[in-house]
């Protein structure tokens, strides 16, 4: 009986020891990898570093997986962060007016034409090399991000890399901004004054034709928002992320 009990206890201890050892990394490198995986932050973020790879031709564009998600929808909060001074992204400037078609197949804001001198951020180079256009097609260019948070596709010859004397930004509708960002902007005196003037002059105009004062004050509000972003002031996190 003692022999049987001793054998049984030995078997239980061996089994427990085996199960513990199977759950541990077998090498120091595996242990380090396991710790990194546990500490990995999966929260969506706006990229701050250029995508890697020779295909980008030393141009600073965001990671392409993130760009694909970005161009599936419209993200005005994200755009304000991307256009902040000090970000590394390649800027381009429109040479003529153009329709803001998103050739990647995502959302477009077709009512807001791209204007001469408009500042955009290069997101992805479109060329025959990557299969984005057909061989013999002269419409190579870029997928770009506008200030209003929408992606558009522009072609070689439609833009310049040198800053023009007059730079314009596409207008984003105030209501499209996330609530935390709107509250933060309204706390700035110049923006608060512009917002108040806009609210008074646009009162009662929910759709259709609006007054000249409403249009002027709406433009002034957006100009104040752009001016604030261009100071490099810290913005609250974007409410919606790709």
In short:
The protein has 242 residues and is α+β, with helices and mostly antiparallel strands. The chain contains seven helices and five strands; from the N terminus they run ααααβββββααα. A five-stranded antiparallel β-sheet has the order 4-3-2-1-5.
Q: Give the ordered list of helices and strands.
A: HHHHEEEEEHHH
Distance between the termini: 68 Å
What class do helices, strands and sheet pairing give? Answer: alpha+beta
Biggest sheet features:
5 strands, antiparallel
**Which consecutive residue ranges, at least 5 long each, have pLDDT under 50?**
1-40
Mean model confidence by pLDDT: 80
What is the C-alpha radius of gyration, as a whole number of Å? 27 Å
How does the overall form come out from the CA principal axes? globular
Indicate the percent of residues in helices.
Answer: 25-40%
Number-wise, the strands total 5
Number of helices: 7
Strand-residue fraction?
Answer: 5-15%
Q: Main sheet: which strands, in order across? A: 4-3-2-1-5
